[in-house]
Amino acid sequence: MHRMTRPLQLLLLLGAVALALFPLGGSEFYVGLLTKIMILAIFALSLDLLIGYTGLISFGHAAFFGVGGYTLAIVFQNAETIPFWSALLWVLGASALAALAIGWISIRTSGIYFIMLTLAFAQMLYYFFFESPRFGGDDGIFLFATPEVSLGSFTLNLQSGHNLYYFVLGWMLVVYLLLRMVLKAPFGHVLVAIKANEQRVRALGYATGRYKLVSFVIAGALAGLAGFLEAIHTGYITPAYLSWHESGLVMVIVILGGMGTLYGPILGTFAIVLLQDYLPNLTEHWQLLMGAIIIAVVLLLPGGIASLLQRLCDRLFAGRASEASGENNASAPSSPPVSSTVLFAPATPGRADNE
């Protein structure tokens, strides 16, 4: 698993604090935009578990994103109020079940065959909802109620933009910490080993297929959680959420941010969405400029944005450490040099007694 240095940990912590303070001075538009970014970041984190740690390149991961949203819209379509915890169980259960069915078949293949199989399953679900009048067809389904989060006597109204922002921020941090805990466990070490050399792991007696299936189900459930939050945020769900375009976008985010880092996909999500918001102000051909930026990052930063951030933190920390050591050397009293021959010379027996 990727190890973070203390300066990088401190920088990421400052970033989390900045996100927590942003709604206090940010406009409503950017509060909504950052909410969308954090939901997409949860989606990217779930895919990073597959690509970055398990070595499973899924090109149909949007299937579970869409299943999460559609489950909420279908089960509670005519409900006047939506109990959040009940809706969450429905969403996670449906997404995990879909991932179990698709993963059980897909993990029997590898390489390009796995990629094409996951894409085929996602497109099957996409056309099922696209051509189904019962589920809104290509128009999708609107939500006429917003889930209510109740904890005892406390109730959180998610119709408020600021409340939803902090709610999504909390879920993003929970998913990040949950995945770190999973990857630090023996289960996570086996996943990393499978990515490195599956045949050797199988020779050691591990049922690699079961490990990959569990990883696939966890990633699918978390992608469903992201789709669930997106449905709450937008108030509707469409078949476009299951399309290969959505799968391709989140894959670009993971690669651009840095696979196998967890914080990399979050950085990649912020970079992609903020560029999509800013570049159209510069030129009508902004997609060409976006493509050039992505190509440059891939060629110049094979480790993604995460590697650049790590380098900057390392250089900054190394520079401060060298300055501190220089100051200590300047203030310390000078001492006569000690010969290495004295330090490592063998002791002469009986010398002290003779003296």
Overview features:
355 residues; mainly alpha; 3-stranded mixed β-sheet; two-stranded antiparallel ribbon; globular
Explain this structure.
With 355 residues, the protein is mainly alpha-helical. The chain has a domain at 31-243. The chain is 70% helix and 4% strand. The protein is built from 15 helices and five strands. The strands form two sheets. A three-stranded mixed beta sheet has the order 1-3-4. Strands 2-5 form a two-stranded antiparallel ribbon. Strand 3 (147-151) and strand 4 form a beta hairpin. Helix 2 (28-54) packs parallel to helix 6 (161-184) and helix 3 runs antiparallel to helix 4 (84-106). The chain is globular, with a radius of gyration of 26 Å. It starts with 5 loop residues before the first helix and ends with a helix. 35% of the residues are buried. Residues 334-355 have low confidence and may be disordered.
